[in-house]
Write a structure and sequence with these properties.
Order of helices and strands: EEEHEEEEEEEE
Strand content: 35-45%
Number of helices: 1
Radius of gyration: 15 Å
Length: 139
């Protein structure tokens, strides 16, 4: 396990090619593994780990304007780098004022470890989850 970052240091990350960068000030709101079908299909992975922050604490750097978004019928937007394709952010009217950041886009430690699994009722049957974190069937 990584050691949580000091609470005063901004948490920084970016896409694979480096054209989109971000930072946000701790404390983060949460860190959780999501197993919902939408996250799985968008990321091409059995689950996605998200870190939540408030819009006020979040800063985006995209000088070339390459960040792209897909908005679902329910109004949730998933943002990704238009150059390298890295999935980066999730915003939804269900969680107004929050930006959820893909944890894999943050190379270093953050102020907390993953706390739970959400939408575990939608998890794939071909992956075993072997941790002791709480598993919520939905959210």
């Amino acid at each position: 396990m990584t050691t949580p970052a000091p609470t005063s240091s901004p948490i920084r990350g970016g896409c694979r090619c480096g054209k989109v960068a971000f930072e946000f000030d701790p404390p983060s709101r949460f860190c959780a593994h999501c197993h919902c079908e939408s996250c799985r299909r968008s990321h091409g992975a059995p689950m996605v780990t998200w870190v939540g922050t408030t819009r006020e604490r979040f800063r985006l750097t995209d000088p070339e304007g390459v960040l792209r978004g897909y908005t679902s019928a329910r109004g949730a937007t998933r943002s990704f780098c238009g150059t390298c394709g890295a999935m980066m952010f999730f915003e939804s009217p269900e969680w107004p004022g929050e930006v959820h950041v893909a944890r894999a886009q943050i190379p270093g430690a953050i102020d907390r470890e993953p706390q739970l699994h959400v939408f575990y009722g939608e998890h794939v049957p071909w992956m075993t989850v072997g941790d002791d974190l709480k598993k919520l069937e939905a959210m």
